């Protein structure tokens, strides 16, 4: 049921905005447009189907005392103009006291009402401290030269005795007249940031012009009224009130109040909308336009995919949670949520300075670092930019629910809440990618994909070195640096082994590729077939890691299934692959005297040059072993380049090579001159993997 008689308790005094005044009783405002027709006060007929009706009335406190402010609407339904100078409005209380009513300054020049039109006239009258609005009546009189009093009573407007029972604001929306247009008002959002001593409410008022003409809404003022009648001014966050209110195009005002006492909103809040009026050069009042009861019932927080709008002095942003992860990290876990920002304005907006924290099970608070993912100086129109909110917790810490709170930093000590998101713990899982699938990096200017290519196990007999080669592709249309990646190996029982990365620091051309190497030492008896690679983008402080940064966390991590390792040892030394290289040996023969052994061969080394690589820590071993195993000769080669001039290295191409071994007792160590063995190992970080082993006859030549 619509109320018609609104009781707006205004405590705004003589200035345009003032602080809290003493509480006023409800029942001090009348707004005709808000009433059902059955509740509207009847108009006074002045002949020819013309009439005078009370549009609104309120008793408002000022510095000089209480003031009645009211507006009369005069409708001229006749065929000729109507002079308002022929009429008076007198204010009389039920006790018989009369209060002098004067026109406001801006209406004194209005003298006539054209045929078929209506004109509004606003009055003010000083009243005493005891009289209530419901006790007042409005007596309409007209000049009458035939009367002894020179006037005749035309009619009277009085409030019914039952009006007081109706005087209370409604929850929900209502329609009011602004600049002669019907405007629908709705409070669409409410939140309050509560500290130990204060509460800072924030709300969204949606205004929809239901008329046919655009209007300006500048100059209106807004306040919160508490259950005990105290009034607190609201600030307009953005200058949306300076815009035009177009027909059927909603406009949202963001309103807020800072640091109100906690006791202010114990029962309910009302939003009070007022319009300033100048009565005299010394007197100004704020006249109540509408009062809306605000629903402050707790609302369910948005979850993943939920959107929250936030307005600051720069504009209105939309915040959306896109994903949430709980990632393993050494002896901790990382909580990581991705939040996107966008807006509907035609120009770019600045990137707000964000803060965030997680609240676990409604109690534990964990601060998060804000990581920007896009190479963007602001928030462009019609596009989203993304941030990661990263926090660390003990990996053994259990929780059933997690809430994300996002804020805008206003100063070193103050922040304003933007949004809260409820993130169900059941959805916090580490994504699993099957072998053959790739992980994408989609940040603006950073489009990249990566996936495991092959694995290798190297050993020294005591422990194994496990390596995964990861293929990285640049998906940008410009050359691009390779994102810093951090990885762990995870066993079936969730044991976590950190890795060392052999990086490629060259930029990649569009569609260019690189091979990164991630490796770690593992127990020799560990089943590597169940290992998974947990890998993500490295983070340092509050940014994505640069080339020389040490990673402090990672984001967008996934666990990737690994390929099976090729453990076959070739029985020949042809086309042995240790990617990106391939080596073949040919024309192998030996020569021996008492103290000198010569091993001659031709090698061919090729490389897949499509990949950018790093061979740091890699060597190739060509080994000679006699049939009894008493003579082992290892020739150690670097690949392409060597750290020192005297170090041996293999060059790309086909070359003859000779291994020479001098030993006076050599002839006595080699007991048989029938066969010998040549082995080729790929060595990585001091451990070896056998690629090929071939047995050959002495003194013969093997193609």
Q: Could you give a quick summary of the protein structure above?
A:
The protein has 703 residues and is mainly β. The protein has two helices and 55 strands. The strands form twelve sheets. It has an eight-stranded antiparallel beta sheet, with no helix packed on it. Strands 1, 2, 3, 4, 8 and 10 form a six-stranded antiparallel beta sheet that branches.
Question: Can you walk through the features of this model?
Answer:
This protein is mostly beta strands. 1% of the residues lie in helices and 54% in strands. β14 and β15 form a beta hairpin. It is rod-shaped and about 155 Å long. Residues 1-27 have low confidence and may be disordered.
Structural class per helix/strand content?
mainly beta
- Tell how many strands the DSSP assignment holds: 55
Characterize the largest beta sheet: strand count, sense, and whether it forms a barrel: 8 strands, antiparallel
Approximate shape: rod-shaped
Give the rounded overall mean pLDDT. Answer: 85
Q: Helical content, roughly?
A: under 10%
Unreliable stretches (pLDDT < 50, length at least 5) are 1-27
């Amino acid at each position: 049921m619509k109320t018609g008689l609104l009781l707006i308790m205004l405590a705004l005094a003589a200035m345009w905005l003032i602080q809290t005044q003493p509480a006023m009783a409800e029942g001090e405002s009348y707004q005709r447009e808000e009433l059902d027709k059955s509740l509207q006060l009847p108009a006074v007929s002045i002949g020819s189907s013309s009439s005078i009706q009370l549009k609104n009335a309120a008793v408002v406190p000022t510095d000089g005392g209480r003031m009645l402010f009211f507006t009369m609407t005069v409708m001229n339904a006749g065929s000729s103009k109507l002079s308002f100078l022929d009429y008076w409005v007198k204010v009389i209380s039920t006790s018989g006291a009369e209060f002098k009513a004067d026109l406001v300054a801006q209406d004194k020049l209005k003298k006539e009402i054209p045929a078929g039109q209506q004109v509004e006239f606003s009055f003010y009258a000083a009243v005493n401290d005891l009289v209530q609005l419901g006790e007042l009546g409005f007596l309409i009189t007209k000049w009458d030269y035939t009367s002894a009093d020179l006037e005749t009573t035309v009619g009277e407007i009085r409030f019914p005795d039952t009006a007081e029972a109706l005087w209370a604001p409604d929850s929900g929306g209502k329609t009011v007249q602004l600049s002669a247009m019907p405007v629908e008002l709705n409070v669409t959002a409410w939140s309050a940031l509560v500290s130990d001593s204060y509460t800072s409410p924030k709300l969204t008022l949606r205004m929809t012009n239901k008329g046919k003409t655009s209007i300006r809404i500048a100059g209106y003022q807004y306040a919160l009224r508490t259950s005990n009648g105290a009034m607190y001014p609201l600030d307009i966050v953005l200058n949306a009130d300076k815009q035009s209110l177009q027909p059927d195009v909603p406009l949202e005002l963001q309103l807020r109040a800072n640091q109100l006492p906690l006791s202010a909103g114990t029962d309910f809040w009302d939003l009070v909308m007022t319009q300033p009026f100048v009565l005299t050069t010394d007197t100004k009042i704020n006249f109540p336009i509408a009062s809306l009861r605000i629903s402050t019932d707790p609302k369910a927080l948005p979850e993943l995919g939920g959107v929250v709008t936030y307005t600051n002095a720069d504009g209105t942003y939309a915040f959306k949670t896109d994903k949430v992860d709980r990632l393993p990290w050494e002896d901790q876990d990382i909580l990581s949520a991705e939040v996107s920002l966008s807006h509907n304005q035609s120009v770019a907006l600045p990137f707000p300075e964000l803060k965030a924290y997680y609240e676990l099970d409604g109690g534990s608070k964990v601060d998060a670092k804000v990581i920007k993912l896009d190479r963007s100086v602001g928030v462009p129109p019609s596009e989203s930019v993304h941030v990661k909110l990263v926090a660390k917790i003990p990996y053994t810490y259990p929780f059933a629910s997690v809430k994300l709170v996002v804020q805008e930093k206003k100063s070193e000590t103050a922040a304003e809440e933007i949004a809260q998101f409820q993130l169900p713990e059941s959805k916090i899982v580490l994504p699993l990618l099957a072998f053959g699938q790739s992980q994408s990096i989609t940040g603006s200017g950073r489009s990249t994909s990566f996936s495991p290519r092959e694995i290798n196990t190297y050993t020294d007999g005591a422990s194994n070195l496990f390596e995964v080669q990861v293929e990285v592709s640049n998906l940008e249309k410009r050359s691009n640096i390779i994102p810093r990646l951090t990885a762990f190996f995870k066993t079936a029982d969730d044991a976590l082994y950190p890795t060392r990365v052999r990086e490629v620091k060259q930029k990649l051309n569009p569609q260019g590729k690189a091979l990164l190497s991630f490796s770690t030492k593992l127990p020799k008896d560990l089943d590597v077939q169940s290992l998974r690679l947990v890998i993500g983008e490295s983070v340092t402080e509050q940014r994505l890691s640069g080339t020389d940064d040490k990673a402090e966390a990672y984001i967008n991590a996934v666990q990737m299934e690994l390929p099976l390792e090729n453990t076959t040892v070739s029985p020949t030394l042809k086309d042995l692959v240790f990617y990106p290289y391939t080596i073949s040996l040919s024309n192998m023969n030996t020569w021996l005297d008492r103290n000198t052994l010569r091993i001659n061969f031709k090698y061919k080394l090729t490389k897949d040059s499509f990949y950018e690589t790093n061979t740091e820590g890699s060597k190739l071993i060509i080994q000679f072993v006699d049939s009894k195993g008493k003579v082992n000769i290892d020739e150690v080669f670097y690949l392409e380049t060597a750290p020192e001039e005297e170090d041996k290295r293999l060059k790309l191409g086909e070359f003859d090579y000779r291994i020479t071994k001098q030993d006076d007792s050599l002839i006595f160590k080699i007991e048989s001159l029938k066969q010998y063995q040549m082995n080729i190992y790929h060595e990585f970080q001091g451990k070896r993997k056998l690629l090929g082993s071939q047995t050959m006859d002495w003194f013969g030549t093997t193609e």
